[in-house]
Amino acid sequence: MEPQQESEFGDFEEIKTEGQQEEQKLNIRVRTPRKGQLIGVVLQRLGGNRMSIKTTDNKTRNCRVPGRFSRKFWLRPGNIVIIEPWPDDDNKGEIVYQYSKNEAMQLKRQGIVNKIYNEF
Predict the structure, then answer these.
(1) In Å, how far are 5, 20, 29, 75, 84 from 58, measured between CA atoms?
(2) Which residues pair with 55 in a beta bridge?
(3) Domain extents for the chain?
(4) 95: closest CA among 119, 62, 120?
C-alpha cells in the first residue's frame, strides 16, 4: 500500500467555497411598500422631525416622522425608508419604516433603489 499524503488539515478535507456565491443564495426577507407607500432615500435633515426625501417616483418630498416613531427612527442622509404621501398634498408625507443596513443592501442587490441611490 502507498502511504497517503497528509494534507495540512490532517484527516479533514479542505472545503473550497466562494463567498460571493453564498451571499447571493441567502435570501433576506425585506418589507415591501404596501398600496400607497413608496421607497425613498433621505437627502437632508431639515430640523425637528422633518426630512427631505427622494422617492422612487422621482419626486422630492418633505416628510415627517410621526410622534409614535420619533424615538424609534434615527435617520441620517443616505438611509432608505418607506414613506406614505399625504392624500391632500402630494409634496409631503410621513415616514413609516426605516430599513436596516442589511435590508438596504438587499434592496440594492435587487435593483429596487439603485436608480435613486445613484443620484444621491
Answers:
(1) 63, 32, 25, 20, 15
(2) 40
(3) 33-119
(4) 62
Contact 116, 108 (CB under 8 A): no
For residue 97, give the C-alpha cell.
Answer: 419604516
Write down the CATH number for the domain with range 33-119: 2.40.50.140
Decide: 37 and 82 in contact? Cβ < 8 Å.
yes
Model's pTM, two decimal places? 0.72
The residue with cell 429596487 is 112
Per-residue model confidence as pLDDT tens digits over 26-72: 566 788 889 999 999 999 999 888 999 999 998 999 999 888 777 77
- Chain position carrying cell 406614505: 84
3-state secondary structure of 113: coil
Q: Return all residues near 33 (Cβ < 8 A) that are at least 6 apart.
A: 39, 82
Helix (H, G, I), strand (E, B) or coil at 25: helix
User: DSSP label at 8?
Assistant: T
Of 84, 103, 80, residue with least CA distance to 93: 84
